[in-house]
Amino acid sequence: MDTITVKTSSRVQFVDITSYIRRIAEKSGLTDGIVLVYVPHTTAGITINEAADPDVVFDLNNKLSQLIPCEGMYRHAEGNSDAHIKASLMGSSAQIIVSDSKLVLGVWQGVFFCEFDGPRTRKVHVKSFLC
Ligand code: ZN
């Protein structure tokens, strides 16, 4: 298993980690299989979406913030319930097919680490599986 360290600089931030995943997959020597990308945090997530136009991630973040505001009728005393909810919506993992030693991603797709309670130093675990 490999681990990527992601340092975020704001409370909510989408970080494109595609190049790191690609490097780990290449280093593993995996020719055909699956790469599992996993976030071991309760207020951060992973999503695969468009990496070509940064406005897509801006809109995603903006809409999430409208739907799930920081302030609200939450019970969780830590004051970051919105971050927990957004993290669950994004999910804590993504799986990417590896074929002929390459990540099978669409032309416009990228893998994003989603920070919802930063700034923090976070971990992303990556494990390759032969299939
Ligand atoms: Zn909390």
Secondary structure topology:
Blueprint: E1 2-7, E2 13-16, H1 18-28, E3 33-38, E4 44-50, H2 54-67, H3 81-90, E5 93-99, E6 102-103, E7 109-115, E8 121-130
Antiparallel strand pairs: 1-8, 2-7, 3-5, 3-8, 4-7, 5-6
The structure holds zinc ion.
Residues 76, 78, 80, 84 line the site of zinc ion.
What does the model show?
The protein is of the alpha+beta class. Helices cover 27% and strands 37% of the residues. It is built from three helices and eight strands. It has helices at residues 18-28, 54-67, 81-90; strands spanning 2-7, 13-16, 33-38, 44-50, 93-99, 102-103, 109-115, 121-130. A five-stranded antiparallel beta sheet has the order 1-8-3-5-6, covered by helices on one side. The mean pLDDT is 97. Zinc ion is lined by residues 76, 78, 80, 84. Zinc ion binds next to loops.
Describe, in short, the structure shown.
With 131 residues, the chain is of the alpha+beta class. The protein has helices spanning 18-28, 54-67, 81-90; strands at 2-7, 13-16, 33-38, 44-50, 93-99, 102-103, 109-115, 121-130.
Which features would summarize this protein structure in a list?
single chain; 131 residues; alpha+beta; five-stranded antiparallel β-sheet; three-stranded antiparallel β-sheet; 3 helices; 27% helix; 37% strand; binds zinc ion
Overall, the morphology is elongated
Q: Low-confidence parts, pLDDT < 50 over ≥5 residues?
A: none
Strand order of the largest sheet: 1-8-3-5-6
SSE string: EEHEEHHEEEE
Question: How large is the radius of gyration?
Answer: 15 Å
* Terminal residue distance: 16 Å
In percent, how helical is the residue content? Answer: 25-40%
Q: Number of helical segments?
A: 3
- Report the sheet with the most strands, covering strand number, pairing sense and barrel closure: 5 strands, antiparallel
Assign the structural class, choosing from mainly alpha, mainly beta, alpha/beta, alpha+beta, or little secondary structure: alpha+beta
Name the beta content range.
35-45%
Number of strands: 8
Quote the average pLDDT: 97
Bound molecules: zinc ion
